[in-house]
Amino acid sequence: MDIRPNHTIYINNINDKVKKEEMKRSLYALFSQFGQIVDIVATKTAKMRGQAFVVFKELAASTNALRQLQGFPFYNKPMRIQYAKTDSEVIAKVKGTYGDKDKKKDKKKKALESAPSLLKKPAPGSAAPVNSNAVQVADNPPNYILFLNNLPEETNEMMLSMLFNQFPGFKEVRLVPGKHDISFVEFESDTQAGVAKDALQGFRITATCAMKITYAKK
């Protein structure tokens, strides 16, 4: 089956017990490491159950994501990933509108303009306070355990694990019962923890919550 590479990847064999919004956030957390995401489409209709589309801005990002995450255990089921047959399949398959090309172009343009707020990268002006806040956070001496705060209410262990397990030495995520906005992440060494800390400092799981990361107190 020869499908030409394009910006949209099609994923199936997704655990269909996961709620739609949680699944979209988790897909974003997992796939955004490869490049800017324009849209994520997932519906719970019988025809689309266990499936999703992720639309990247750059072709290289969709290619890299497809190669790196093929078979990734997403909610304990290995993902099957391929290129969508065409970029417009996102709109066509979900909305059932195989209209003319102009309609598709118009819908694609609207999708770009109205991507969910959680998928939007912060504007240059709004990014500055995040970084300055992160710098102002009093850090502790290097440690193999990281302390995360300013996490959104919907954060779960799966989302954080997917974010951090891309870094060598990742061991586990530990949530704090009764406190949704903080968590601990353990690595095998101080150095490996430091790499992840620098890379994900200020990462936005949602549009309003920029994650703050420090070394945990020893």
Protein model, in words:
By secondary structure, the protein is α+β, with helices and mostly antiparallel strands. The protein is built from 7 helices and 12 strands. The strands form 4 sheets. A 4-stranded antiparallel beta sheet has the order 2-3-1-6, with helices on both faces. The protein has a 4-stranded antiparallel beta sheet with strand order 8-9-7-12. Strand 4 and strand 5 form a beta hairpin. Helix 1 packs parallel to helix 6.
Structural class: alpha+beta
Rounded to an integer, what's the Rg over CA atoms?
18 Å
Spatial order of strands in the largest sheet: 2-3-1-6
- The string of secondary-structure elements, in order, is EHEEHEEEHHHEHEEHEEE
**Helix content estimate:** 25-40%
Report the β-strand fraction as a percent range: 15-25%
| Unreliable parts | 111-136
Mean pLDDT: 78
- Roughly how many Å apart are the termini? 54 Å
Number of strands: 12
Biggest sheet features? 4 strands, antiparallel
Q: Shape from CA axes?
A: globular
Count of helical regions: 7
Question: Care to give the gist of this entry?
Answer:
This protein is α+β, with helices and mostly antiparallel strands. It has helices at residues 20-31, 59-69, 89-95, 101-113, 124-136, 157-164, 190-200, and strands spanning 8-12, 37-41, 52-56, 73-74, 77-78, 80-83, 145-149, 170-176, 179-187, 204-206, 209-210, 212-215.
Properties at a glance:
218 residues; alpha+beta; 4-stranded antiparallel beta sheet; 12 strands; 34% helix; 24% strand
